[in-house]
Amino acid sequence: MRPALDLLAQVGPLPDGDVIDLCCGDGAVGPALAARWPDRRRVGLDASPAMLERADETGAYAALVEGDAALWHPEAPPALIFSNAALHWLPDHATLMPRLAGWLVPGGMLAVQMPRQFGAPSHRFLRDIAAAMFPDRFDAGPEEPPVRSAQHYWQMLAPLGQVQAWETDYVQYLGPASDSHPVRRFTESTAMRPYLECLSAAEAAAFTAAYDTALSAAYPLLADGGALFPFRRCFFTLMV
């Protein structure tokens, strides 16, 4: 939640209009949005019905909408489109971000936070090890990262309004994991999953062992078996 709250702190006074939690997931940010704008109509959008059911339990939203954020359009121009740790899953940011900004009322704001770990050892090792072990299925060659630099987004969005853009490294403590490196436990359900889905059980075991070994060099274990994991986030706000 800390990155979401840091982004929220940069949102100033808003004109009239709804507050949209784009890709709201289970509604983790909903209570913070409700506390900040208790009198606004708050709308959560997500592609997962299961996540929307959990978001509904927070009581933070006036409406919850099932839909694809890449295709979504609001019923009426909103005052704020807020997206926390979600838009990195969507392609073509050069089209997506201006499109979202175009839905806002004058004076409205687009506020976005996305993880930017493409070049970190935790993610780079996955590409390199997979390409080395299974060259017929994986390629470690040049690939455009899903999230670009804060400077890139500033330059992209500056013609549309007032932009703030920045990056922050959050040093996370990951607790001990009995059968894996703590960072692998963190990545195995997200960044690691597409690789594991392409491998047999035996291949996955060998790949995982090699990944754990590499992680131990980049993220040494602490005395208690945990590890420190720097995690970079990219932020921007655009007032139109």
UniProtKB/TrEMBL annotation:
Q: Is-annotated flag, keyword Electron transport?
A: no
The UniProt keyword set, sorted, is:
Methyltransferase, Transferase
Tell me the CDD domains matching this sequence. Answer: AdoMet_MTases
The record's Gene Ontology biological-process terms are: methylation
Give start and end of each Methyltransferase domain: 19-108
Pfam families per UniProt? Methyltransf_25
Give any GO molecular function from the UniProt entry. Answer: trans-aconitate 2-methyltransferase activity
Question: Protein name, please?
Answer: Methyltransferase domain-containing protein
Q: What is the lineage of its organism?
A: Bacteria, Pseudomonadati, Pseudomonadota, Alphaproteobacteria, Rhodobacterales
